[in-house]
Every structure is written in C-alpha cells, then in structure tokens.
Design goal:
70% of the residues lie in helices and 0% in strands. It is mainly α and 122 residues long. Helix 5 runs antiparallel to helix 6 (68-83) and helix 6 packs parallel to helix 9. The radius of gyration is 13 Å and the shape is globular.
Length: 122
Amino acid sequence: MTACMQCVNNKDLEQFIPMLIDTMQNPIKVPDCVHKLAATTFVQAVEAPTLSIMVPLLVRGLRHDNTTAIKRKASVIIENMAKLVDNPLDAVPFLPNLLPGLEKVANEVAEPECRSVDARAA
C-alpha cells in the first residue's frame, strides 16, 4: 500500500501517507484523520492521484454518523482541494462519489454553518 501511495506527487499529503494508510485499514480512525487534514493548508495543485487517495476518506467523513464537526471539516477539505484542481478532467471521475454525500449533508445537517460550508464545496 505504501508503494502505491508514493505515486502521489503532492507534497501537502506526503506527511499524511502513513496516517491515510492506517485510516483505510481502520475506518474508526476517520474522524481523527479528517481533523488532522482539515488543519492543513493545501497549496499544491491537486491531480487525479491525489484525489484517488483523498476521496474515499472524504466520503467516509461526509457519511460519519451524527458528527456534524467531521462532516463540516470534510466539506472544508473538499472545498479547499477543489480550488486547487487545475484540470477539471482530473476531478470528473470522483464527482459521482462526492456530490451525493455533499448534497445529503446540505439537506440533512441542522447546523447552518455546516450547510453553508457544504454548499460552497458542492
């Protein structure tokens, strides 16, 4: 798994690769992983390999049971990364996975701030 992750040339994610692998193997760690990633400032262009690692985690974050904070943080990460996608074709394959989760959060979460963040990410 580590060798596969090394194909991602995004320096912003480099330090998180061990944690991302651990979270993929232990989904109970999704909230902690989303929390740590939300505290990161992403500055490097986001390409398909980066999205292939991040989208499964973010989808889990959006689906996280009754935890509005994690859903909000996942939405913030999605919004920030979307701004860094230079080639929209890199994001197209991942939209069917992300958009339903974003729409569900926007329609079901009671907290107005979370809905606002989610709407910007969608």
